[in-house]
Amino acid sequence: MAARIEVAELVKEFRIPQRREGVRGALQNLFYRKYQTVRAVDSISFEIPAGDMVGYIGPNGAGKSTTIKMLTGILMPTSGRVISNGFRPFEERSRYTKTIGVVFGQRTQLWWDIAVIESFRLLKKIYDVSDADYEARMKQFDEVLELKRYLNTPVRKLSLGERMRCDVAASLIHNPPLLFLDEPTIGLDIVAKDHIRAFLKQVNQQYGTTILLTTHDLADIEELCRRLMVIDRGKLLFDGPLEELKRRLWRETSVKFDFRDREQAQKLAAMSIPHVSVERCSELTCRLTFPREAVSTAEVIRRVVNSVEVLDISIEEQSIEEVVKQIYTGQVLQEAR
Question: Is residue 73 assigned to a domain?
Fold first, then answer.
């Protein structure tokens, strides 16, 4: 499948003025300034095939939004190459922007003081969408996002969740093959998030829309994305399936055992198994935790069921939050490469 986005050795640097302290420093700043060069994106490369939904995550200041701004043509790269939808985004911006949709969670593309429907009609004219296509898309938007109730309301009177639903719909008025989402569910309640996720799934499945999503809400990644890219300090640390990331960084396994009576629970709590720690969760429940490389889950379960009477067993996987937390805190960067 042809790549919708091709990025090779992409770099973005910013020159930031260094301010001197005190009155004397302020006067010096008027006549002579020192600058520091900061590399926000540091030689990253990747390809995204048509139809993929890719999560792009990292801590604040990692370079996510800077990357998105280069991919959408807002920023010019310092060096490297970007080909998106067959265009060089910054050099061919006027033609390229007609082939993409963009949602920035903190900024709206709708006109603030006019009704939502008027913004949609303006976008219809800007993108030269036919009447038939426009009506069909508005019907689809209402079915999933329930937009009809907001259409005659000025944008400034909408809640954040209502505005985000409208912004996502506005980005897809012209049915672009490529959609960029920068924190599209930030600050939303559970109901609003569910509506937006369901809509994005439908658009991806029905039209094969390629979606690149940056978010701090890891539930978005688990619900929507087949592939995950992790960036930190401008460098791409991981690019692959979420399950592969878990496999590399999932160091411990926990197995919870439920028992019929306290005697069996006490018996397990008193057992000594090499590399295994035992936690008494309740009178009738114990949790065993152990490093995956030192001992197998099957061996731990076998030793327990051969020694005590077990009512139920549940294997507890490490959450995506814990996996990504390890990356953000810099504990396992080498393992994630």
Answer: yes
